[in-house]
Amino acid sequence: MIFWHFSVSFLNITLEGTPWTLLSLFYVTLLDVILLLFLLYIKESIDSVALSDDDDNIIAEDKLKSQCKKCGAQYMASSRYGTGNMRRHIKVCKRNDTRDIGQMMISRDTNSLSLGSIQYDSNKFRELVMACIVMHDLPFQFVEWAGIRAIHQYLYPDVDTLTRNTAKADVLKAYQREKLKIKAMFEEVSGRVSLTSDLWSSCISDGYMCLTAHFIDKEWRLQKRILNFCFMPPPHTGVALSEKIFDLLCGWKIEGKLFSLTLDNASSNDVSVEALGSQLQLKGLLPCNGEFFHLRCCCHILNLVVQDGLKHIDRAIEKIRESVKYVKGSHSQVRKQKFLDCVKLVSVGVKKGLRQDILTRWNSTYLMLDSALLYRRAFEHLALSDSNYKSCPSAEEWDKVEKVWRFLHVFYDATLVFSGTKYPTANLFFPSISQCYLTLKMALEGTDEYLRFMASMMWVKFQKYWADFSVILAIACILDPRYKMTFVELCYKKAHGEDSLEILLVRNKLYSLFDEYKSKSSHPTTTSVSSRPRANEATSYLESMEVESKLDLFKEFDDITSEEFSYAHKSQLELYLDEPKMSRNVNFDVLTFWESHQYRYPELAVMARDVLSIPVSTVASEAAFSVGGRVLDQYRSSLKPENVEAIICTRDWLYGDKDDNEYENTRELMKITQDIMQMSLKEETGEQTTVCSNF
Predict the structure, then answer these.
(1) What is the rounded average pLDDT for all residues in the chain?
(2) Using CA atoms, how far apart are residues 364 and 630, in angstroms rounded to an integer?
(3) Which H or E run includes 66?
(4) What's the half-sphere exposure (Cβ side, CA atoms, 13 Å) at 289?
(5) Which residues contact 531 (CB under 8 A, 6 or more apart)?
(6) How confident is the model at residue 406 (pLDDT cuts 50, 70, 90)?
(7) For residues 415 and 380, is the Cβ–Cβ distance under 8 A?
(8) For 358-362, 662-666, 673-677, which range has the lowest pLDDT when averaged over its residues?
């Protein structure tokens, strides 16, 4: 503008002082045009370079574009909208954020930077906290810990502040919700339910009763659910126990669906199950008049039998115990290192640790012998290199220890089978107990004096409980297509001789139980094995002839025809028993078999569903006590019984399968509690010596 005023002034001066007016005007106008073009060129240059320092300019398809150095995004960079695009891109560039992860999670308004919005659901948050408390046996006060609250505040500043009362209310709410689901599940179950029960004393000597249900659902899967873990006030008499169990069953509305109740060998349990069975039988709620209602825990029976045999320990076993104590003792690390050197020297190719036994647990004695035999050569070499080691068994004593180990191995395997909770165990009773019987009989007839003495001590108690074993367990073995009647007959013949009355009793009970299921079933009661017509169809025409002729000859003929065709009808049980047995060497699932044959043997399948769900041990209830010990420990001994029950039952209903798998993996007869100190040998790369951890 200044230049324009200068030009006008110059023009005025020129017009007044010189005759060359037109020529001067032309030069001035030309100069103005040149200056204007120069200014426009400078403005274009300034706009093209006024971009962010973070951008590189590139020319593509005759259009000016810019590319962000951080995220690689491209946008138009011409003079019309270059700076505006740059400013808008800086606001939304995802790699231009220098905040930490916590700041990124904080929600912001729409005009600010954000990686993404996270929606907070207070109900979901409380549900997760409840699940954490139940799953990990945490106290309700967990939500009030300063560290936990700090974490929650860091993740979300507006998080709800929970109190112990809120956490308790959420657990109780989840307990009631899951309880309704379990009740609905029982309503859908078409078969009967078997129970296990046991008593437990807490750290403050409060009595608790655990009641566990076992049943097979409509998908033919074995289910286990803890129904109650309730406070049981004294006195723990048989009558009090029966009344308590009956009240619990009525609360679940399954008193009319019971089949059996498995208890340990306490005298009060005998009284309680008799009173409870009588009460249920008065209403006609038990099959076969309650004859199969009471079962004894087979694991407890085996424990009593073996404990009698181990009352008088041989000197060889005592030397093994002293040897393990000598090596695993905490007084000298020199002994451990010497033993490790012996292990390396004799090249023992095992990594199993030595096990110290517990005098009150016979299975820990077996595990001690099992681990010591693996290191026999190492112990023998230690006796030569360490003059202080005086308890090494001799060669004869090592042989005797191996015989005892083989003898106890059969009972140990049987205990593991009976302790299962994820598979049917009733059908496995006779195969396992028959192996124990043959082992005892062979030891009684053998030449080893110590084994014969052990077997004689065990045989007395074995015979006592053999007579008390329920017939229903023999029926369960018959319902296993790998064994059927043949194996049960073999077991009784070896136990009682040929033509024993016991096998006749089992056969009669089997048919009477099937007849009861058949009478309550809507399916046909017989199955024809002949393609010929039935007797009533074949004689319908003859009956019309009889009416016409009135001759006794046709009546006699009808009787003969009925007898001729009567053989063509067999019950489902008879057809099942007549079929060939399945091989024992194949991978077999008895529930899968009956699921696939439920339409061929509908009545027998219903009976098999109820019988195979019977547990032969109380391990399922006892496993809940380990959870109870963590929930009701010395720091939470004042926890109310209803809260204890809510935590334990909800944990089983929500995460029972996971707990069972962990229990099965670590069980091996309570391996965690029996293994006082575990030794594991492992070689580390680049080292010359073998390292032993926890030895």
Answers:
(1) 78
(2) 23
(3) strand 63-68
(4) 2
(5) none
(6) very high
(7) no
(8) 673-677
Q: What angle do CA 667, 670, 676 make, to 5 degrees?
A: 125
Q: Does residue 36 have a pLDDT over 70?
A: yes
Tokens of 129: 């906290």
d(CA 631, CA 140): 11
- Contacts made by residues 72-79, CB under 8 angstroms, sequence distance 24+: 77/48, 77/51, 79/43, 79/44, 79/47, 79/48
Q: And the tokens for 134?
A: 């139940």
Task: Please give the Cα distance from 257 to 286 (Å, whole number).
Answer: 8
Instruction: With H, G, I as helix, E, B as strand and everything else as coil, classify residue 561.
Output: helix
Tally DSSP H helices, then E strands, for the chain. Answer: 29, 12
What is the length of the chain? 695
Separation CA 293–CA 425 (nearest Å): 16
Q: Are strands 55-60 and 294-296 parallel, antiparallel or unpaired?
A: unpaired
Whole-model pTM: value is 0.71
What is the rounded CA–CA span in Å between residue 429 and residue 406? 20
Residue 424 pLDDT grade (very low, low, confident, very high; cuts 50, 70, 90): confident
pLDDT at res. 688: 35
Burial class of residue 324, CB neighbours in 10 A (0-12, 13-18, 19+):
buried
Quote the Cα angle for 397-402-403, to 5°.
95
Single-letter code of the amino acid located at 388: N
pLDDT of 245 higher than 50: yes
Among 48-62, 108-122, 195-209, 272-286, the range of highest mean pLDDT: 272-286
The pLDDT of 220-246, averaged and rounded, is: 92
DSSP 211-280: EEEEEE-TTS-EEEEEEEEEE-PSP--HHHHHHHHHHHHHHHT-TTSEEEEEE-S-HHHHHHHHHHHHHH
**251 pLDDT exceeds 90?**
yes
Structure tokens at 103: 């700041």
Report strand pairing: 193-201 vs 207-216.
Answer: antiparallel
Tokens of 419: 């302790």
Mean pLDDT of the 180-197 span: 93
Detail the DSSP E strand segments found in 436-518. none
Within a 10 A sphere around the Cβ of 31, how many other Cβ atoms?
13
User: Residue 49 has what pLDDT?
Assistant: 45
Residue with tokens 């959870």: 627
- For β-strands 63-68 and 55-60, DSSP reports them as antiparallel
- Summarize pLDDT for 603-637 with one digit per residue, the tens: 999 999 999 999 999 888 887 877 767 777 766 67
* 3-state SS class at 376: helix
